[in-house]
Amino acid sequence: MTIHFIGAGPGAADLITLRAARVIAASPVCLYAGSLVPAELLDTCPEGAEVVDTARMSLDQIVDKLVEADRAGLDVARLHSGDPSIYSAVAEQVRRLEAAGVGYDIVPGVPAFTAAAAALGRELTVPGVSQSIVLTRVSTLSTAMPPGEDLRSLGRSGATMVVHLGAHRIEQIVEELSESYGSDCPAAVVAFASRPDEVVLRGTLATLVEQVHAAGITKTAVVIVGRVLAAEGFPDSYLYSATRSRATH
């Protein structure tokens, strides 16, 4: 029996993988992350499945439930929003499962930042403009950033910057990134990406604070900063160039 950690995507119920859909439909126990997981996915659980909202549960309570299901010989679909590889709290659950001798696997999902890029209609890696993406967040009282991972330090690269979980700190984000990117740098905020209540704000670092406050955005948003958002006149990718050899060997 297995605990399946599943990336349930950014919000739209149809933005999950075929594998994830199959696992959910076959698991007699489903633990999901409260309002972050679309309710429609829960409708695909098998008839009679035990469905548990973990929003008000502690880590120990969640792991106890996973271990209990495993001991009973039941597969578990453990749904997390976005993709389990970033900001999912999967690491601490996995650590405890390994200590308990419980098997698990991870099913990737669509992360929020890719859904945000799709909403903006932009590629985040544009030839000659930026070929790197920094995925980060801002420090909070509950989770401090490691040394060297503050926005000022990371911003010196000039790479496309994606800040998760930071809409409530928009002033800090703008202040710290303006030093490296300039106040005229294109910037955007996408809240509730892929959901019916999606909000998309486009502007610059100079206008972003006012826009975010006017829209009342405080959470469930991704901030994207970089010249790629308004890139023009860049060279075509060599991938599809007419000069590229396509001979097979």
Automatic annotation (TrEMBL):
> What UniProt keywords apply to this chain's record, in alphabetical order?
Cobalamin biosynthesis, Methyltransferase, S-adenosyl-L-methionine, Transferase
Pfam families hit by this protein: TP_methylase (PF00590)
On whether Nucleus is a keyword of this UniProt record, the answer is no
- All copies of the Tetrapyrrole methylase domain together span 2-208
Sorted alphabetically, which CDD domains does this protein's record hold? Precorrin-4_C11-MT
Q: Alphabetically, which GO biological process terms does the record hold?
A: cobalamin biosynthetic process; methylation
Give, as in the UniProt entry, the pathway in which the protein acts: Cofactor biosynthesis; adenosylcobalamin biosynthesis
- Whether Lipid biosynthesis counts among this entry's keywords is no
What NCBIfam families does the database record attribute to this sequence?
cobM_cbiF (TIGR01465)
The family assignment reads: Belongs to the precorrin methyltransferase family.
Q: What is this protein called?
A: Precorrin-4/cobalt-precorrin-4 C11-methyltransferase
